[in-house]
Amino acid sequence: MRGVWAIATREVGSLLRLPVGWVVIALFAFLSAVLFVNGTLAPGQPATMRYFFSSASWLMLAIAPAVSMRLVSEELRSGTVEPLRTAPISDAAVVWGKYLGAVAFLALMLAPTLVLPVVLWGVSDPRPDPGPVFAGYLSLMLVGMLYLSVGLLASSLTSSQTLAFLGALMFLVLMMVLTGVVSQAQATPGWLARALAALSVQARARDMAKGVIDTGAVVFFLAGSGWFVLLATAALGSRRWR
Amino acid sequence: MIIVREITKSFGKVRAVRGVSLELPAGQIAGLLGPNGAGKTTAIRIITGYLPADKGHVAIAGYDTGREAMQARRQIGYLPESAPMYPEMTARGYLEHRGRLYGMDRARRKKAVGEVLERCRVGELASRRIGALSKGYRQRVGLAAALLHDPPVLILDEPTNGLDPSQIREARSLIRELANERTMLLCSHILPEIERTCDRVIIMAGGRVCADGTPEELTGGGGAPRRYTIEVRSNPSAGAGYSIGRLRGVAGVGAIEAAGEQPSDASGGWTRLLVEGEPGAGDLREALAGAAADAGLFVRELRGERDTLEDVFVRTVEADGAAGGAA
């Protein structure tokens, strides 16, 4: 546990010491402000942030792999994995530490956008309902956590950050097409369509953006993240045999 | 302190380490030598527990690196080749991080970091980013990180690689200082370095240990020289052959050859001869001088040369290459 904490804090610290961390934070803050101004802050619109939350979960598709790409790849490339893996901590602690560090960074990245609901509160006449705003942030966090775990797996498979980024992005887009497009297609047999739809991240995120917190959805995101972190641990462990 | 039993490791078809066994008692400084690709780094990675061996066992201070990995890792301070570290962190920040990985509490961490910074003479640059440090300083920070948890075993892979001569000298004195009370395995290409620092030399080639002993043992004992240079004056018309013939009569002399030119009027009859001593012949200087005097040869130089570690290294590695080629 101690090792997990040490690694997580180092990971956050490093992201904040590197340009990539600040670029991601600035980019996300800028794009979310654009989404908010365009979609929500218009006269006559209902005072909800639904549009912001559903579009921001699309942004996660590219942002999460950008945050996670260096987690393990950079250690493999620069050789720092050697002192790391000869220190008295387990592979699982290394991977969980890195994952939790990335999740903490995600929370930091989302923090500046908290100004948006405050603005909405100030300008709209029937005040916005706080429930959906809370649910929306929860959904963004959960979607981001799942995407980060996929990115972490990609990162522990290669020493190239570019490959880790593209691999995670491609996997996420592929899953989106399978669960969103293929599951709706006429030609898809019913059982497969149902199975694919059941794996849909977008459908769950949409529901939560409406303010519906479904325990099943929360479990889906957390279990999915845990599963990919375990796979990443196995991927790192298998490097010992290669 | 370090016990290595018959470790073997292959990467695909390449057999990097083939049945290496070693035993280092506490307090010994051993140098691991070998040409590139001899399996040194792989062997070191197995000993530190970074790589598992296909076969064989390693125990550090009684802890098996496989079954009791965490305890074994605590016994080792390891500086990997080229000291990989996070360039965006400061030297002090990195050491703090390492301290946390070893489970040191805040007070102990602070004390230990201060101590190793001073010991490795990083001091004034501790708050610079590691990426901005020169190679010599980076190496020192790496060494400081290896020492942080005060391990009884130190394993250093090429600690002086890429340093300039004055940095090498500094690193060497630091290493010797650290050697007190520690067991150390040092891997290097730089032979004089090993010769000066280590109690014991292990030469690896082709994934095997092919020589193991103290530097004195390997270089043929502290005693007799193996080669002699003798410069004698003879009648130019007799040529070098005369002198060679007379000196060959000395018991224990092996091959003799003339270095450079034959004696001539221009050289004043002086010629330089290289004499090989036979193994176990003892010191032949007196006998050579005597024989020269008896033959009426004037001597103006007589020097015995011992084998250097470099000679032993080249001989051992070449012999192994020949054996490997035949096998």
Q: What's the CATH architecture of the largest domain in chain B?
A: 3-Layer(aba) Sandwich
Bin the strand percentage of chain A: under 5%
Q: Which class of secondary structure composition applies to the elements of chain A? A: mainly alpha
Q: Tell me the helix content of chain B.
A: 25-40%
Order of helices and strands of chain A: HHHHHHHHHHHH
Over the alpha carbons, how many angstroms does the gyration radius of chain A reach? 19 Å
Main sheet properties of chain B: 6 strands, mixed
Secondary structure category of chain B: alpha/beta
The CATH superfamily of the largest domain in chain B is identified as P-loop containing nucleotide triphosphate hydrolases
Q: How many distinct helices of chain B?
A: 11
Output the helix-strand order of chain B: EEEHEEHEHHHEHEHEEHEHEEHEH
Number of domains of chain B: 2
Count of DSSP helices of chain A? Answer: 12
Multimeric state of these chains? heterodimer
Low-confidence parts of chain A: none
Q: Please name the CATH topology of the largest domain in chain B.
A: Rossmann fold
**Would you report the number of β strands of chain B?**
14
Overall geometry of chain A: globular
What form of chain B results from the Cα inertia axes?
elongated
Termini distance of chain B?
Answer: 34 Å
Offer a few descriptive terms.
heterodimer; A: 242 residues; mainly alpha; 12 helices; 78% helix; B: 327 residues; alpha/beta; Rossmann fold; Alpha-Beta Plaits; 2 domains; six-stranded mixed beta sheet; four-stranded antiparallel beta sheet; 11 helices; 14 strands; 35% helix
